[in-house]
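Worked example 3. Consider a protein that binds zinc ion.
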Amino acid sequence: MDKNEGKQHILLSAKVRDFTLWDAANLTEEEAFWKFVELRWGSEDQVTCPSCGAIAKPYARANRGQLRCRHCDHHFSPFVASPFADRKMDFKKLLMAICLYTASAKGVPALFMCRLLDMQDKTATVLTGKLRESLIQEMDTEILSGVVEIDGGYFCGKPRKGRLRLKTRPEDVAAALEAKLKGEPRAKRKPRSKAEARNWARRSLRRVVMVLRQVDPQTGKGANRTRVAIAYSENERVATRLARILVEPGSTIMTDENAAYNVLSSWYDHHCVEHSVEFSTVDGVNENQAESYFSRLRRAEYGTYHGFRPKYLMDYAQEFAWREDVRKKTEKEKIQDLMARVFSTGHSHWWRGYWQGHHREDEFPVQR
Ligand SMILES: [Zn+2]
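Given these inputs, the predicted complex is written out as structure tokens:
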């Protein structure tokens, strides 16, 4: 091992800042246009025509934001057949929005983006929504193997506390005291208040984000691939189904002591860590990578988005799976990774015409 290795964290080195918001801000509109051409086709000279399929250097009509094919005279934009095909925003502003999105660790709220980049809140909502759509549609679907950590975390449907703390309500305290003095058994629970009834409705929105993270086989430290799914509860059926679909048989699976995972021993080398006792066993059994994912998602829930709704929970769950997986990449690599997914998504199905009332109908499939 190099003696300097490990002294400086990768994120502190200058090499991660190879394409930042500042670089995007210093481009002209035409340079930003060419940047997107390069992000889409890898170079400005080897562009594939979407109409005839010829690969050649196209004629540029950069002031119109278009390219023209040498062979069939077809005009097309770098965003042809992508979620941003009908964009009206400047290339430069879009590039700056993407830089902002990739550089953030806990996500970018649409309202923050619209204040920074002078766009309508609707524009920023749809823009970030389309980026998340691409992350879902083009998620990494390769099977996980080696060491895989599995865990579930509860999101949405958090009950609210009432105006009064139930235990310290004066009448409750008086009643409890009286009953104690008389030697009576404890009174039955009071009937539900309106607030409590509302909380029951709220609880029905509760979902579990299930995460499966593969430990990096190269280094044995940190996770490099993440899969997520949404479930109603963290139960044996869900855990088994997800593991059997997403994890190669014979792999090592690490979980917490939840009984939902016990049956996994039939197909996998299953280890569990008792969280009530320790966070990692002496043999190194832990699920810190899964916890790291939840830590990031939870902080985004509280600190960035101020709450998730079940309908869009998968969008955020997948966004943060992606953020975890690219956390050690440079800014340029993150933009390339994100844009490769965007360009292979095709037209947006979930966000086209959103503000004209065309909303996604259902929640993403929820495991039972
Ligand atoms: Zn052509």
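Take a moment to read the result before moving on. Residues 49, 51-52, 54, 69, 71-72, 74 surround zinc ion (CB under 6 Å). The mean pLDDT is 90.
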